[in-house]
Amino acid sequence: MNLKPLIAVILAATAFSASAANQTFSIVEGTAFNFTGLNDLLSSPDHSDTITFEGLAAGSYKAFLSFSSVNLHISKATLNGLDATYLFPDGATSIGYFNLSATSPFELKLFGTLTGTQTAASYSGQLVVTAVPEPETYGMLLGGLALLGVVAKKRRKQG
Fold first, then answer.
1. 3-state SS of the chain: helix, strand, coil percent to 5?
2. Who contacts 61 (Cβ-Cβ below 8 Å, separation ≥6)?
3. For residue range 46-76, what is the model confidence (pLDDT) as tens digits?
4. Domain range for residue 96?
5. N or C of the chain: less Cβ packing under 10 Å?
6. Based on the structure, what is the number of domains in the chain?
7. Strands across the sheet with 72-79, in order?
């Protein structure tokens, strides 16, 4: 009996179930994006969920992401590897946020457990991303302002 196909099916099923909770969303710069999860975090073996936000051009962005949960203690949250700032990390609710500059795509990882004897839990959040100007942009702005200053000085001398 050839066991290779059976082993391949078992490995594929295991890999699929481990990543079933992960989500990917396409975001737009300057627009608030809302996301939710229901028990996704609890169905994974390590009680985690990975949410990827993509769709932005390469470059640096300023990101503000807030999250909260109900009947779920989010014990750790990271955005592109940086830890969240918690406002209320204990009890039946977790509230936190990120305010950082990073490159796209953004990867949010949440780790948590149910609180008390609850059987249902949810989390939600909002992400707002804006572009961070490149250093060349500031250079062009300063050069333009200097040129306007020179033109204004020449006009004053002529008039």
1. 25, 45, 30
2. 29, 101, 102, 103, 104, 106, 129, 130, 131, 132
3. 778 888 999 988 888 888 999 888 888 888 8
4. 17-158
5. N
6. 1
7. 23-26, 48-54, 106-114, 72-79, 82-83
Domain CATH for 101: 2.60.120
- List the pLDDT tens digit at each of the 159 positions of the chain: 555 554 444 444 433 333 345 788 898 888 899 988 765 666 776 778 888 999 988 888 888 999 888 888 888 889 999 999 887 766 677 888 898 888 888 999 988 887 777 677 788 899 998 887 666 666 777 788 888 888 888 888 886
Q: Which two tokens stand for residue 89?
A: 């990390």
- State the Cα–Cα distance between residues 102 and 51, nearest whole angstrom: 16
pLDDT digits (tens, 9 = 90+) for 30-46: 889 998 876 566 677 67
Q: How many Å separate Cα 33 from the centre of its chain?
A: 10
Residue 134 lies in a domain: yes
Residue entry with tokens 């290779």: 4
2 within a domain of the structure (yes/no): no
What tokens does 143 get?
């050069």
Residue type, 82: L
